[in-house]
Amino acid sequence: MDVTLAKDDERRVWALAATVCDPEVPVLTIEDLGVLRSVHVADRDGAPAVTVEITPTYSGCPAIDAMHDDIVTTLTDAGYDDVTVRTVLAPAWTTDWMSEAGKAKLEAFGIAPPAPRSAVHGGDGRVGLGLGIRCPHCGSLHTREVSHFGSTSCKALYVCQKCGEPFDHFKAH
C-alpha cells in the first residue's frame, strides 16, 4: 500500500472513529474524551487492515466494550472489513486528554467539567487546593458534594447551594 494512501486512509479512519460517542456521556465523542489514541492502516492481502487503539478512562470502565463494538460497527459500515480495536492501558488515561470542546460540551449538557490535573493535584506532586466546583446551571461556586460517585464512577454528584440544582462533576483523573 502506497504510504500516501495509507496516511489518507488513517485520516479517514480517525475521522470515522472520532464520531463514536461515549455510551455513558453521549454528548461526548471518544475523541472529545481523549479515549481515541491511535489509528493504523496496513495492507493485508491487498485490502486495508485497520487497528484502532483506545484507552479507557479507568481499567474497569464498563463502557469500553460498547465503545469497541461501536468503533467496529462504524468502520465496517464504512467499508473496512478487517478491524481490530486494542485497549491500551499505559499510559493511563487522564482528564487532561479531554479536548476543550469536549469540556464545553459537558458544561452545556449540565455536567461540570474537570479542572486540569495540575490544578487539582499540583504540578509538583502535592495536592492542590480547589476553589470549588462551578455549577453548570447558574455558574455559582457555592456548591457541595453530595456523593463522591455520581451517575458513573468517573463523576461525583454535587448540588448548587444557589440555584438548588443537582449536577454531576466529571472528576479529574
Distance between the termini: 40 Å
User: In which order are the strands of the major sheet placed?
Assistant: 4-7-6-5
- The amount of beta strand, in percent, is 15-25%
| Cα Rg | 19 Å
- CATH level-4 homologous superfamily of the largest domain: Fe-S cluster assembly (FSCA)
Shape: elongated
CATH topology (level 3) name of the largest domain = GMP Synthetase, Chain A, domain 3
Structural class: alpha/beta
| Sequence stretches where pLDDT stays below 50 over 5 or more residues | none
CATH class identity of the largest domain: Alpha Beta
Main beta sheet: 4 strands, mixed
CATH architecture of the largest domain: 2-Layer Sandwich
Task: Bin the helical content.
Answer: 25-40%
Instruction: Summarize model confidence as the mean pLDDT.
Output: 89
Order of helices and strands: HHEEHEHEHEEE
Number of distinct beta strands: 7
Overall structural domain count: 2
What is this entry, summarized?
With 173 residues, the chain is of the alpha/beta class. The chain has 2 domains: 3-87, GMP Synthetase, Chain A, domain 3; 95-170, no CATH class.
Write the layout of secondary structure elements.
Elements (H helix, E strand, L loop, with lengths): L2 H15 L12 H4 L2 E9 L2 E8 L9 H14 L4 E6 L12 H10 L1 E2 L4 H5 L21 E5 L7 E6 L5 E5 L3
Parallel strand pairs: 2-3, 4-7
Antiparallel strand pairs: 1-2, 5-6, 6-7
